[in-house]
Amino acid sequence: MNAFTLGGATTILDGGLATELEALGHDLSDSLWSARLLADSPEEIVAAHAAFFRAGAEIATTASYQASFEGFAARGIEREEAAKLMRRSVELARLAGDVEPGRHRWVAASIGPYGAMLADGSEYRGRYGRTKRELRDFHRPRMEVLAESVPDVFALETVPDVEEAEALVDALDGLDVPAWLSFTTSGDRTRAGQPLAEAFAVAEHAGIIAVGVNCSAPEDVLTAIEIACGTTTKPVVVYPNSGEDWDAQKRSWTGRPQLSPALARTWRDAGASVIGGCCRVRPEDISAIAEALIDPER
């Protein structure tokens, strides 16, 4: 297998896996989110990954964002089966990458924040009342299991605050899997309110190969890139939401999409090495971004 590296030409990431699974007709409203389909409909996860690969994505992020031993246990799934399902997330993404022989595809094992397991939106607030040691002890076991399936990279993503980022980096030690570290932000700060320069400084750990933002508004991405480039020499990864707003009470999206191919070119020119999308970003959006980064007329 080729060693996973970033830098040089822009790498295209996939979009919202859960969004695509919902478009395929699945209700993801329970606490396991897309991780539920690892047991119930694994073939649909392959189909969603494959759709993004066909659209031009070079990296697939796995359906493990909300997967944890604690979360599976709450659904009556025992530890051995939970570990099997987590490993399956990497295997399914790898299988989807085989849809076009001759083109190498990468698999990023998604590691969502502690708040994702709580399924109450607290990943957008941080500050869960847990110590750094407790957060590390939560993340480390599932990272160990996912590492057994040999992903190309960990996506430590949607991280809302610096303390959890430090816990994730500590948990990375000894696993022999590189990682990118991606924060969710508001303006020039993490969702917990820390300056992004402070957050991005955590990426100086040797195991972190890139730093950036995801699950943020498109309008906040350029500021994040500028701060990242002023804080670290490591590659920058960006994959925002569509720009629509989530209404937690009505459980629906409002507003109009703001993500555009022109924005993707701006982000590349500002220094982003990996560009993709998060919630509400479909394969056709990734296709438009990929084409725009190749064709300056688009």
UniProtKB/TrEMBL annotation:
Instruction: Give the superkingdom in one word.
Output: Bacteria
Which EC number(s) does the record attach to this protein?
2.1.1.10
Name the SUPFAM superfamilies for this protein. Answer: Homocysteine S-methyltransferase
Name any one Pfam family assigned in the record. S-methyl_trans
For the biological process aspect of GO, one term held by this record is: methylation
Q: Which GO molecular function annotations are given, in alphabetical order?
A: methyltransferase activity
Keyword annotations for this protein, in alphabetical order, are:
Metal-binding, Methyltransferase, Transferase, Zinc
Q: Which InterPro entries match?
A: BHMT-like, HCY_dom, HCY_dom_sf, Hcy_S-methyltransferase
PROSITE patterns, sorted: HCY
Protein name listed in UniProt: Homocysteine S-methyltransferase
Q: Which organism is it from?
A: Saccharopolyspora oryzae
The opening ranks of the lineage are: Bacteria, Bacillati, Actinomycetota, Actinomycetes, Pseudonocardiales
